[in-house]
């Protein structure tokens, strides 16, 4: 017996069984007058119409099912305080002052990402925002940053690694003998975050501020080592 016959045989047997059960004669006791005037009345029985029930055969699909992707909803991932201190040099140049950073940062998930359904890792876009104080040589400055980032993350965000490039804004850009050159700086950052407990996140971030030569050859940026803790949503 071929594969097609084996697939269709159970369905055909079930169809025949149901047809036989439904079409069995059931006699209604309705009388019909047959004949002409003066003839005797002839009584007959009329069977109900036969009903046929068709059961379509089930054929299994042999085509492979595609691996579907899913997206994670955008929203706030975590918020918390950060502390940072200056590195040895701003990407190879001699740093002239020792900097400290105190701020509050927040991390948002953006709607663009790629998450294979059967993978524990995915790629998503994020946005890092911060506001706080940068201090060195007795001078302080308000500092705000807004940095879009690309992150490689585990499904439950237990571990994530991100890379970002954005802008920083400073109310004061002169600290002792070190001059940033202007109030708007380019921010380059990379960081790693972990969520060892529910609702708690910690991380380390390397962050670089500079003007990329926009304000002239004498301006000098700063490298920061930043430690993060926060409430995870």
Would you spell out the secondary-structure blueprint of this structure?
Elements lengths: L2 H20 L4 E2 L17 E2 L27 E12 L13 E15 L6 E16 L2 E16 L4 E12 L3 E2 L2 E2 L4 E14 L2 E11 L11 E11 L1
Antiparallel strand pairs: 1-2, 3-4, 3-12, 4-5, 5-6, 6-7, 7-10, 8-9, 10-11, 11-12
Give the gist of this structure:
The protein has 233 residues and is mainly β. It is built from 1 helix and 12 strands, in the order αββββββββββββ. The model is unreliable at 22-48 and 64-68 (pLDDT under 50).
Explain this structure to me?
The chain is mainly beta. The protein has one helix at residues 3-22; strands at residues 27-28, 46-47, 75-86, 100-114, 121-136, 139-154, 159-170, 174-175, 178-179, 184-197, 200-210, 222-232. Strand 4 and strand 5 form a beta hairpin. It is elongated, with a radius of gyration of 38 Å. The relative contact order is 0.15.
């Amino acid at each position: 017996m071929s594969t097609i016959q084996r697939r269709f045989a159970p369905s055909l047997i079930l169809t025949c069984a149901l047809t036989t059960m439904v079409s069995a004669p059931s006699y209604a006791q309705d009388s019909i007058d047959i004949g002409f005037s003066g003839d005797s009345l002839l009584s007959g029985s009329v069977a109900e119409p036969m009903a046929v029930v068709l059961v379509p055969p089930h054929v299994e699909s042999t085509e492979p099912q595609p691996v579907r992707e899913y997206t994670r909803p955008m929203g706030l991932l975590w918020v918390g305080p950060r502390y940072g201190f200056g590195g040895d040099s701003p990407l190879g140049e001699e740093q002239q002052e020792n900097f400290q950073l105190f701020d509050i940062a927040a991390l948002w998930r953006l709607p663009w990402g790629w998450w294979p359904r059967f993978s524990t890792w995915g790629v998503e876009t994020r946005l890092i925002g911060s506001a706080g104080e940068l201090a060195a040589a007795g001078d302080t400055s308000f500092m705000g940053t807004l940095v879009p980032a690309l992150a490689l993350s585990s499904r439950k965000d237990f571990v994530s690694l991100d890379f970002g490039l954005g802008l920083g804004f400073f109310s004061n850009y002169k600290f002792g003998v070190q001059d940033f050159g202007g109030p708007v700086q380019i921010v380059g950052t990379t960081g790693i975050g972990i969520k060892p407990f529910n609702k708690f996140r910690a991380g380390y971030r390397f962050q670089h501020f500079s003007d990329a030569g926009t304000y002239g050859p004498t301006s000098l940026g700063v490298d920061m080592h930043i430690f993060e803790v926060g409430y995870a949503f």
